[in-house]
Amino acid sequence: MKKYFIPFLVILLSACSLGMNNSPKQVVSSFLDKYKNQDSTILSQLEDTINNEYSNDDYRQRYKTLMTNQYKNLEYEIKDETIEDDNAVVEAQITVYDYASAIRNANDYLNSNPDEFKIANPTIDMEDADDETTKDTEEDTLTNDNNTSDYDQDKFIDYKLSQMENVSDKTTYTIEFTLTKIDGKWQMDSLSNADIEKIHGIYNQG
């Protein structure tokens, strides 16, 4: 059965804004501190992403609260730094709320209990319906009984956000940040989608 995921934000700071630090480790620390300190650039990008993804004001506020809570409680430790010419790798361990498990459990619940999220079929007056309409409706009903393509998205998003709001457990990820020295300044390379998901606690390791 198909799985459904809430769209999640992808936030990247401009590498140029991190270039004033003296070492690769300092660049990475500055980057992560912007999340911990809820830097205005981070929050502005969060707002833009949420506004693009959600039309419901309640969902927007709830998701924003989840992410700002994630940021301010993010913990990290720089484990290693390797420098070779104008390239560097900084290994960091980050500890974040394990939202990924809540998302995974919510999707599993949807797959196991699709009827709880199904959109009710409209009532048809059989006296007014012609044979062709009746035939089409019966075929649609049979099709919809075997998939979740017509699930109630709002109901499922509400359920998934509720599961995330109940998360208290944390998980630890390892990220290898790569950096390049440009014009004498260390600049962080773009992160992979997986690393961005790790920072937000939504990376599925399985």
Task: Write a brief structural summary.
This protein has 206 residues and is of the alpha+beta class. The chain is 44% helix and 18% strand. Strands 1-2-3-4 form a four-stranded antiparallel beta sheet.
From the structure above, extract its key features.
alpha+beta, 4-stranded antiparallel sheet, 206 residues, 4 strands, elongated, disordered N terminus
Give a description of the structure:
This protein has 206 residues and is of the alpha+beta class. 44% of the residues lie in helices and 18% in strands. It contains 7 helices and 4 strands. The protein has helices at residues 24-36, 40-53, 57-72, 99-112, 131-144, 153-165, 193-199, and strands at residues 75-84, 87-97, 170-182, 185-188. A 4-stranded antiparallel beta sheet has the order 1-2-3-4. A hairpin with a 2-residue loop joins strand 1 (75-84) and strand 2 (87-97). Helix 2 (40-53) runs antiparallel to helix 3 (57-72) and helix 4 packs antiparallel against helix 6 (153-165). The longest helix is centred in the first third of the chain and has 16 residues, at 57-72. The radius of gyration is 23 Å and the shape is elongated. The protein starts with 23 loop residues before the first helix and ends in a 7-residue tail after the last helix. Mean pLDDT is 83; it is low at 1-6, 13-17 and 133-146.
Output the structural class.
alpha+beta
Alpha plus pi helix count: 7
Q: Biggest sheet, strands in spatial order?
A: 1-2-3-4
Mean pLDDT: 83
Written as H for each helix and E for each strand, in order along the chain, the element string is HHHEEHHHEEH
Q: Report the major sheet.
A: 4 strands, antiparallel
Q: How far do the termini sit from each other?
A: 18 Å
Shape: elongated
Helix content: 40-55%
- The Cα radius of gyration reads 23 Å
Number of strands: 4
In the predicted model, the low-confidence regions spanning at least 5 consecutive residues are 1-6, 13-17, 133-146
Strand content: 15-25%
